[in-house]
Structure formats: structure tokens, C-alpha cells
Design a protein that fits this description.
single chain, alpha+beta, 8-stranded mixed sheet, 7-stranded mixed sheet, 17 helices, globular, FAD-binding domain-containing protein, oxidoreductase, FAD, RIFMO-like, oxidoreductase activity, acting on paired donors, with incorporation or reduction of molecular oxygen, NAD(P)H as one donor, and incorporation of one atom of oxygen
């Protein structure tokens, strides 16, 4: 951690302390950004105004896509141990159970469920991960002001950096008695008179604002936060209750006879979280509400009427508050290419669908690899423009989705109440048999064409489901090794594709060879399709040629684009930002290897690197579609290993070849598995497709070179 020296409030005596990246706000979004940047050799300072993690949890669910992201970052195991699987919603009309709906089930991901985990535990888990990387949170410090400083150099160029003033209460904490206690408020809180602080100025290359809906950074920069504040009078209650309704069975949705709705979540400590709809208030009435006007007795009466005639009694409470629903989005997520808003600082919406924390975590995943590439000198600063270009439309879609879910959940007019009853009745019977693109699990978020999502100019386009900007999908692959020659093609050790795509900041090049590398089927197989080499207009290759291309290009890329050490990053920051820099960092925990943070569940999977050491990996995927479905004496597998010998012995990530049984993974990427020309797919460090080109011959590799050169420096 970068250490600093407290100073007085006098601006003339404030010392300047440098850090490559300052992060304001140590909630899940800020913590994850700090973890990812630290793994990418970028020193950070993470400040948080609260002295302790709040025991109150707004978010309760980690969705499938976020679990994939955590897995790629190498931190998923801790959270799987802390949380519990969640998929079913129990839907009631009054006290009667209407249906159990598998609302969070999905066939699209290895993590085919929601992970029920309180935000306080998510925050704790991320904090522990950051500690193991040698970084501590600077608690008690809050941001007072920030600005971008631009200085003219002697050669006429301009140098810019961020100057941020932070403070810490001399006595007590930074929480002021004048602050709003209504959850969801976005207004800036007034100052408290006679409160004394120590002040410090921090200069940084970049500032990431993850300081919530009331974001001080957003307010100080006067970034507009347009949107609306809903007049829904929502109440949140955490406590123990006694009821005839089994609220501890899982997520429960109550459509009350009093035309009110209530959702409940069982908490690990035996308490139940309730989100209760209490109708509408005028804006004036809503603004006048004070938390102390809400009592446990008032909530009990309202909740009891919703589940009537069932019994409902509150035994105690640990949290009781009004929830003000704001649907807002910052006018810009990026200020002068130096200050970035993420999480609730950039977008807020209703809690419906559990999208808020998950969206913030994915903001960090999108931003940090781009920031790291720029700071390592591997990409131009213009790469950072794609953060807003990609995440702003996503936030807009999330706001609309949560608004729709909230409106549907609270709707109690006769027509929509009837439609909800019908939908609840049939959903359990049809959902298991349809593969719908459920937006709630966040697996189908797509980034559209831009500077880093480019369509191949020389090859035909494909269906949008497989195009650039789509999430890289997962699938099982067979490990090909010489000792497996006695096994059939579908047997032996398997590895998931996502287990190969590990570590932040790495471009994964997927080389789909169709069945180009496999032995041709015998004549009695009856194949009439032309061999791959005769496919018109597309260069193909054999195993020898492909092995040569992979080795040459991987070597060239790694030679041209490589990560600096943490010390080099600190030194480069010092040359940009004037003032003293403290480059000292705590070492990696001695219980961990300097090369790997954890062992993979499969011996064939790639261990997660603690620190970024390479920016490119190549994985070769061969289809066995042309092989007989039931080889009698494993001759085909023997022949397969022989034909891929040059790649089978490669290390994982170095072009090693894997067998795609029946071309299933090929299909997921829109690649022809039988007698096809092959395809090269470039997967960005955040596991979205950036480029794809038909074929695997020299011309295809040349196009990949051109793509990388167009986005990297």
C-alpha cells in the first residue's frame, strides 16, 4: 500500500503524494477495480470514508455473468464457499402458494444459478482478496474535491494528471449528523458545523469514482445525473418474524389481497429481508419522510395486511428504512480521459432484478484492463474512450430492465394482476424446456461495433449471435495427449474453455480448426463433402503450418506488447506527476506462489496468475465431427494424436490443441465443425469477442495482426 503523511488544513502546507491510480469508495465495485489493477501490476490507493464495512446489505445476489468474471479473475472459490445456490422464486397470491419458478436457472453458463450472498459478505470477501495481494484500504478518508490539472511542457505538449483533496476526521469518523438516512438518495449531503479534519492532496494518473449514488466526485465535477425519482413508497425491513408463510424457503413474492406486493429473502443469520410496496406518495410527501417515522409496528401492520389472512408478527429488527428509487445515469462516465465513474456513481435504479452491484462489478472489469494497457504503454489513451461507449448503453438497458421488473412486480390493477397469475401458473412447466435469453443473469449483454470490436473486412459476416461484441461462450473440451491414445474421442480428461481463459489483461486467441487437423474419414464413411483445402477463397493449413504460425505470432506479440513491473509503473507515474512518490508495496502473501494464486480444478486448466506476466495466449480447438461416432479400436484417436503431434505437447496457452467432441464448441461460436475452413477468434481480456476471421492460414493470421495493431500502441 502507498503510505501518506497527514497534513494540516492549510493548502500551503499540504504535501503532494503520488499514486498511479486513486480509487474513491471501497464498496464491491471499488474493491474489484483495485484487485484487478493490482493483478495487472498497477499500484493503487483505495480510500473509503467509512471506518468499517456496513453490516447492512443492499445487494443479495451475484448473477451468473459476475461469477464468470470472478472465475476469470481467479477469485471465485471464496465466494462459492460463502454463498448458497439460488434459482427458485416462490410466488404467492395472498397466503396461497401459486407456483415455484426457476427464474435464475440458465443453460448458458457453468454457473447456472444465482449465488445468494449478502453484500456485506461480498465486500468482506473482496477485501480479503485485496489483502492477500498486499493492499490495505485507507479507511476514514473521504474525497473533498478533485480536478484535472493540465500543464504545458517545454516542447509544446501537454501533461495532465488528477489532483484530489481528501480529508479524515480528527475525532470520530466522517459520518455527519446532517446526512440523509433514506436509502437510495443521490443528493449531496450538507456539511456539519465545527467538525475538524486533517487534509491531504493526492496526485494520480487516474481517478476511479466508485463512491456510490451520492458520489462526491460526480458532484464536485458538476456532472449532470439526469433521470427521475419514483414516488413509490418502498420499505426495507430486516429482522426475525413469525408467520404462517414459510418465508425461509427461499425468495418469496407475495401479491397481497390488499393490492400491495412484498418480496422476501432469507438471510443467513435467520432474519428475513422484506421489500414492501406501500403505495405512492407525492414528491413533497416523499421528500418530507423521516426514517424515525417508520416503526416496527407500522411495518408489521402493513406486511400483515399483505399476507392476510395468514399470521404475521415481527419479533425484532436490525434494519428498517424507506427506500427511495432513483432511475438516473450520469451524463458522462469519463471526465477528460482521467476520471472515471463506475457503479452507483454512474448509474442507479430500482433493486428489482438484483442488477446494481453486479453491473458495478462488470464496470470495473471493463475499465481496468483498458486502463492497465494504457499505463503499461501497450495501448493509446483513446482505448479508454471505449469504456463509456460500451458501459453507458449497458447501464441504460439495466435501468430500463429494472424499471420494467419493478413496474410488473408492483402492478396490482385487475388486468396485470390476472396476467401475473396466469404467468405464474404456467412458468414452472415451460421454463425448463426453453432456452430463453434471460436478461437477469446478465449473460447476454453485448457490446456493439466500435474501435475494439471490429468485423473482418475480408470475410463474410455471420449471424449476430456469434459476432464481435458478444460474450465468449463456454464449453467442454477434451485434452489430447499421447497417453490418451487408448481412449475414444469423447473420453478422458476434459477442461472447460473458460478454464483456459484465465487472468485479467490477457487476449485469448481461439484457433478453431474444424476438422482440418484430423485424419480424413475412410471411404466407407460415405462423406461426399469436399476436403477443407478445396474450400473456395479461404486459405487453409495443416498441423505443421499452424504450429509454425502460432509460434511466430505469439512470440512477435509478446515481444512487442508486454507488461511492465510495478516499480516501472511507479517510476513512469512519477515522471508524469510532479511530487514525491512512495513506490513501496507489501509483498505477495508467502502462502502463495509468485506465479499462481490457485490450482485449477482440472490439471489441464491454466492456473490463475497472481501478477500479469503475459498479454497473449493461444488455444487450438479441433473438431472431431468427421471421426466415426463409435471407434472400435481407438484407431481414430491414435491417428488424431499423431496428426496433431506438433500442438498436443504444447503448454496450455501456447497453442495447445484440444478436441471439441462433435463440434459443440465450434457451434457455440458459429464455426463449421465438419469440413470447414476454420476460424480465428480474438477474445478480449474481459472475455468478449473483439475480432474473428474465417480460416486459419497465413492471411487469417495477418488480419489478426492488423486488428491488434489497430487497438494497441
Amino acid at each position: 500500500m502507498l503510505t501518506t503523511t497527514p497534513t494540516t488544513q492549510s493548502s500551503s502546507s499540504v504535501k503532494n503524494v503520488n499514486v498511479p491510480v486513486l480509487i474513491s469508495g471501497a464498496g464491491p465495485t471499488g474493491l474489484f477495480a483495485a484487485i484487478l489493477l493490482t493483478k495487472l501490476n498497477i499500484p493503487v490507493r483505495l480510500i473509503e470514508r467509512h471506518l468499517e464495512v456496513s453490516s447492512l446489505s443492499k445487494a443479495l445476489v451475484i448473477h451468473s455473468r459476475t461469477m464468470e468474471v470472478f472465475a476469470q479473475a481467479g477469485i471465485i472459490d471464496r465466494f462459492l464457499e460463502l454463498g448458497s445456490r439460488l434459482s427458485d422464486f416462490h410466488v404467492y397470491f395472498g397466503p396461497k402458494l401459486m407456483s415455484v419458478i426457476p427464474a435464475l436457472d440458465t443453460k448458458e453458463s457453468h454457473y447456472n444459478y444465482g449465488l445468494f450472498l449478502q453484500q456485506s459478505l461480498t465486500t468482506w470477501g473482496l477485501t480479503e482478496e485485496l489483502k492477500e495481494l498486499g493492499v490495505q484500504i485507507d479507511r476514514g478518508w473521504e474525497l473533498m474535491d478533485t480536478k484535472v490539472i493540465e500543464e504545458k511542457n517545454a516542447d509544446g505538449t501537454t501533461t495532465s494528471y488528477v489532483e484530489t483533496k481528501i480529508r479524515r476526521a480528527i475525532i470520530g469518523d466522517n459520518i455527519r449528523t446532517t446526512e440523509s438516512r433514506i436509502l437510495g438518495a443521490v443528493e449531496e449531503d450538507p456539511e456539519e458545523a465545527n467538525k475538524r479534519y486533517e487534509v491531504e492532496v493526492v496526485r494520480s494518473e487516474y481517478l476511479i469514482a466508485t463512491d456510490g449514488g451520492k458520489s462526491a466526485v460526480r458532484h464536485k465535477l458538476n456532472i449532470p445525473f439526469p433521470g427521475r425519482t419514483l414516488d413509490n413508497n418502498l420499505i426495507i425491513f430486516d429482522g426475525h418474524i413469525d408467520s404462517d408463510v414459510p418465508f425461509d424457503d427461499g425468495i418469496t413474492v407475495i401479491n397481497g389481497a390488499n393490492n400491495r406486493s412484498m418480496v422476501s429473502f432469507p438471510l443467513p443469520n435467520g432474519q428475513i429481508r422484506f421489500l414492501l410496496d406501500n403505495g405512492f406518495l407525492t414528491p413533497e410527501e416523499h421528500a418530507a419522510l423521516k426514517p424515525e417515522e417508520l416503526t416496527m409496528e407500522v411495518f408489521e401492520k402493513l406486511a400483515g395486511a399483505t399476507v392476510a389472512p395468514a399470521k404475521f408478527k415481527c419479533l425484532d429488527q436490525s434494519w428498517l428504512t424507506y427506500y427511495r428509487v432513483n432511475e438516473r445515469q450520469a451524463e458522462t462516465f469519463c471526465y477528460k480521459q482521467k476520471i472515471f465513474l463506475a457503479g452507483d456513481a454512474s448509474h442507479v435504479h430500482s433493486p428489482a432484478g438484483g442488477q446494481g452491484m453486479n453491473t458495478g462489478l462488470q464496470d470495473s472489469f471493463n475499465l481496468t484492463w483498458k486502463m492497465a494497457l494504457v499505463m503499461h504503454g501497450m495501448a493509446p489513451k483513446s482505448l479508454l474512450d471505449s469504456y463509456e461507449a460500451e458501459r453507458k448503453p449497458v447501464a441504460d438497458g439495466i435501468i430500463k430492465l429494472s424499471a420494467k421488473l419493478l413496474d410488473m412486480g408492483l402492478a396490482q390493477d385487475f388486468v396485470r394482476r390476472t396476467l401475473k397469475r396466469i404467468a405464474a401458473s404456467i412458468a414452472p412447466y415451460i421454463l425448463p424446456y426453453i432456452n430463453t435469453n434471460n436478461p437477469v443473469n446478465m449473460l447476454f449483454i453485448r457490446y456493439h461495433d466500435n474501435a475494439i470490436n471490429q468485423r473482418s473486412k475480408s470475410q463474410a459476416t455471420i449471424e449476430e449471435d456469434y459476432q464481435v461484441g458478444q460474450r465468449a461462450r463456454d464449453g467442454n473440451l477434451r485434452v489430447i495427449r499421447k497417453q490418451d491414445m487408448g481412449l475414444a474421442a469423447q473420453e478422458g480428461e476434459t477442461v472447460r474453455l473458460h478454464q483456459l481463459m484465465v487472468g485479467p489483461g490477457i487476449f485469448h486467441i481461439l484457433v478453431f480448426t474444424s476438422d482440418l487437423l484430423l485424419p480424413a474419414p475412410s471411404k466407407n464413411e460415405g462423406s461426399t463433402s469436399p476436403p477443407p483445402a478445396t474450400i473456395k477463397g479461404v486459405e487453409t493449413t495443416d498441423a505443421s503450418g499452424l504450429a509454425k504460425s502460432i509460434k511466430e505470432h505469439l512470440s512477435a506479440w509478446r515481444s512487442k506488447w508486454s507488461y511492465k513491473t510495478r516499480t516501472q509503473i511507479v517510476e513512469s507515474t512519477a515522471s508524469t506527476v510532479s511530487g514525491p512518490t512512495t513506490p513501496e508495496m507489501k509483498p505477495v502473501s508467502p502462502t502463495q506462489s509468485s506465479d499462481t494464486a490457485c490450482t485449477a480444478s482440472s490439471l489441464a486448466a491454466i492456473p490463475h496468475p497472481i501478477r500479469a506476466d503475459k498479454a497473449f495466449m493461444v488455444h487450438t480447438i479441433a473438431s472431431d465431427c468427421s471421426l466415426p461416432s463409435s471407434p472400435k479400436n481407438s484407431e481414430c484417436m491414435v491417428s488424431t494424436v499423431a496428426s496433431t503431434d506438433r500442438l498436443a505437447d504444447n503448454k496450455a496457452g501456447e497453442g495447445k490443441v484440444y478436441l471439441d467432441h462433435q463440434g459443440c464448441v465450434h457451434q457455440k461460436y458459429g464455426v463449421v465443425g465438419k469440413h470447414g475452413p476454420g476460424t480465428i477468434v480474438v477474445v478480449r481480456p474481459d472475455s468478449y469477442i473483439g475480432y474473428r476471421v474465417l480460416g486459419a492460414g497465413p492471411s487469417a493470421w495477418k488480419e489478426v495482426d492488423q486488428y491488434l495493431e489497430s487497438i494497441l500502441a
